[in-house]
Amino acid sequence: MYSHESGKIPKRIRASANDNLNYLLRSGTDQQINFIFHLNGHIDDERMKKAVRLTMDAEPILGCRYVINRRRVYWERREDLDDLEYFTLIESENPEAEIRKIVLYQIDPSVESIIQIKIIRSIEKDILYIKSDHSVMDGGGFYDYLTLLCDTYNKLIEDPNYQVEPNVQASRELRQVFKHYRFRKKMRSLLRDEGYMPTWSFPAIGTGKTKKTYTLRKIEPERFERIKTYGKERKATLNDMFLTAAFRSLFDLKKPVENKPMTIAVPTDLRVLMPTKKAETIANLVSATFVSLKYNPETTFDEMLLDVNKQMTKKKGIHLGMGQTYMINNLFRLRYAWVRWLANRIYGGLYKRGKMHPIITNVGMIDSQKRYFGEVDVEDGYIITPINWAPSFSMGISSYNKRITFSIAFCEDSYDKRTIEQFLDLIFEELPQ
Which of 10, 271, 341, 387 has the lowest CB atom count within 10 Å? Predict the structure, then answer.
């Protein structure tokens, strides 16, 4: 079912363990990844539409639908690709209102195109909006897609009849990571990582999932440099700085029991464990590791930063979340109906307890040198992470041209918007001015 001749697009592609896991996680979030790019001019919408369609052949997974049966789950190549609504040009005098509509919309990967591109056009400039379902790609996979889209668009400028070569020999499976490590290292990563059981959650007002919204905050380049310099002087990364500020802000909001470990989940990109640091194809290769701090109102920012840095350095030494992902990969070898039942039991218990790790996901820097469409450049770009309802909570962090964007997407019948804004205020107060 999964073998094919070179250059021939297969009718079915096996769904990886991470594909299936992220689909099941829709019980707590809408599992949508949203990227917004503000351009400094207008791009050719017809050329963009053609480029998007070509990417669906270049990476065949993008032209598939998600199919569930009781035994196995797979991606099935669609026969109606040219009839799908995968590209839309929207002319608007209020582009931000259009962005909000699209962010709040949830793709059904079993029915709709799993990659959706919008150009929101005002008089002077375009906004390029890219939306995908998390079950097909993570943040790293999105960056791979963005590179493909830019390259395809620019090649169509050179040759309007440009055709792509389907990437049919590549694997989307997690084994492209695991094959580089012995069983002992995978088990070492699993056993030495700690913090799997949630100890708290972001303060909620309910468990509703209808009043969807999001909020953004930005740090401008001048302050970015000061934050980076502050961390560098203390041999800490930007991610360490963000985690420390998030911990201190959550401590301020929650006031947990003193000296009790509180944990934040940190999504990690398994691509860093591969010799090339790149996946074979667009895929979902994200895992998670856990950082825990004990609440002490007397502890300074620098003391917490040192603790966070030590933990993250240690976890990099044990290959971050590779061990747990290895176990998840093996779990999904079982009949899908059994795994779905087990996952529902586990997550049902977490929701009943009302505790789930707050997630701080830093998707990193969007490389501005490679992001252009002909003569049109990207002025600003940022991610809006999936919409969460209690007790699930996440904050996304991305940067472009040294401008950092924080995003929190949530349901107002789960979380009080004032608490979300207060949380961001506290983070901005904690970070170096």
Answer: 341
The fraction of the chain above a pLDDT of 70, given in percent, is: 98
In contact, 51 and 379? CB cutoff 8 Å: no
From CA 199, how far away is CA 212, in angstroms rounded?
Answer: 26
pLDDT in tens, 81-113: 989 999 999 999 999 999 999 999 999 999 999
Residue of 2, 7, 162 lying closest to 76 (CA atoms): 2
What gap in Å lies between CA 136 and CA 10, rounded to an integer? 17
Reported as a single tens digit per residue, the pLDDT across 410-428 is 999 999 999 999 999 999 9
CATH code for the part of the protein at 12-158: 3.30.559.10
What is the fold, at CATH topology level, of the domain defined by 180-430? Answer: Chloramphenicol Acetyltransferase (3.30.559)
Residue intervals in the chain for CATH 3.30.559.10 = 12-158
Residues of the chain with CATH 3.30.559.30: 180-430
pLDDT surpasses 70 at 2? no
Predicted TM-score of the model (pTM): 0.92
Four-point Cα dihedral 420, 422, 428, 430, nearest 10: -120
pLDDT at 7: 53
Sign of the alpha-carbon dihedral angle for 246, 247, 251, 254: positive
Secondary-structure percent of the chain, ordered helix, strand, coil, rounded to 5: 40, 25, 35
Can you tell me the distance from the alpha carbon of 201 to that of 355, in angstroms, rounded to the nearest whole number?
Answer: 5
